[in-house]
Amino acid sequence: MSREEPTVPEQPTPAEPVTRDVPPLLDVDGLSVRQAGGGELLHGVSFTLAPGERLGLIGESGSGKSLTALAVLGLLPAGLSAHGSVLLAGTQIVGARDRRLDRVRGRTVSAVFQEPLTALDPLMRIGRQLAGPIRRRRGLRGGALRAAVSTALDEVRLSARVAGAYPHEISGGQRQRAALAMALACEPDLLIADEPTTALDVTVQAEVLALLNGLVSGRSMALLLIGHDLAVVAGVTDRLAVLERGSLVESGRAEDIVRAPRHPYTRALVESAEAFEAEFDRLAP
Ligand SMILES: Nc1ncnc2c1ncn2[C@@H]1O[C@H](COP(=O)(O)OP(=O)(O)OP(=O)(O)O)[C@@H](O)[C@H]1O
């Protein structure tokens, strides 16, 4: 939804961020993503995120959630270009060169993705991988660095033994915890989590999500949580933004959207989440 031209005219102004008097940490304004051939995949998306706020970005597969995240990180794949404005802690990401992006990534913002192996080096033990960002961010060495690695593992409920393991030697849930520890080791102001639990077993999903929730709120870190499951995302976020085929169709307080969705697409997402819950209750012993 562009600020000049709301897609849903009857909709009231979307809920304001929780914190009104501080500038947004992330200000996405009229963000479009285009293919080299000219086709547009994301159409003028706008939203803001205040420091410490949690925003859920939801929508079906292919609605543009990951492209939004990648554009915010300045990580769009070759052949795709971003247009509009993405201000992250005052730095313009659209059109920025790598040097400027390097200053922002891993300091202001870091990310976890659906597949933790993308973030982990298969040839390096977990402890060494974790030590890299901690050393860079906090300047620790030797025993102090080893202690900080242990603490970082402990925070994501991994035993110190995991430090000596290679990524293929631990489970998918443990790998996602390790990837989360790496993202948090940078002490970013904003964590972007793109479907962080989708590839995990249902029971492990709940554990990792609860962990993510606790760690983000404990650090007053802002969170952009991307997912297709409205019930899951709404449970962890203050506000929701709903994407449909590359356009933002609704945004507001998570509880308001779940209770009274305005846009037909959002209504369908809420109804399908409710139908799933009802089926789950019916099947549960
Ligand atoms: N590199 C690319 N080149 C061309 N089209 C792309 C590229 N990456 C994504 N797309 C297209 O852009 C649209 C949005 O993709 P995106 O990955 O953002 O969706 P998504 O909402 O994250 O979906 P999912 O939940 O399946 O990850 C889709 O139609 C997808 O096919």
Q: What assembly state would you assign to the polypeptide chains in this entry?
A: single chain
Tally the beta strands. 10
Task: Give the second-level CATH assignment, the architecture of the domain at 1-108 and 236-285.
Answer: 3-Layer(aba) Sandwich
Low-confidence stretches: 1-16
CATH superfamily of the domain at 1-108 and 236-285: P-loop containing nucleotide triphosphate hydrolases
What shape does the CA trace take? globular
The hetero compounds bound to this protein are: adenosine-5'-triphosphate
Helix segment count? 9
Distance between the termini: 43 Å
Task: Report what the structure shows.
By secondary structure, the protein is an alpha/beta fold. It is built from nine helices and ten strands. The chain has helices at 65-73, 98-104, 126-138, 142-155, 172-185, 202-218, 230-234, 254-259, 264-283, and strands at 26-35, 40-49, 54-58, 80-88, 91-92, 109-112, 190-194, 222-227, 239-244, 247-253. It has a six-stranded mixed beta sheet, sandwiched between helices. A four-stranded antiparallel beta sheet has the order 2-1-4-5, covered by helices on one side. Helix 5 (172-185) packs parallel to helix 6 (202-218). The relative contact order is 0.17. Residues 1-16 have low confidence and may be disordered. Bound molecules: adenosine-5'-triphosphate. Adenosine-5'-triphosphate binds next to helix 1.
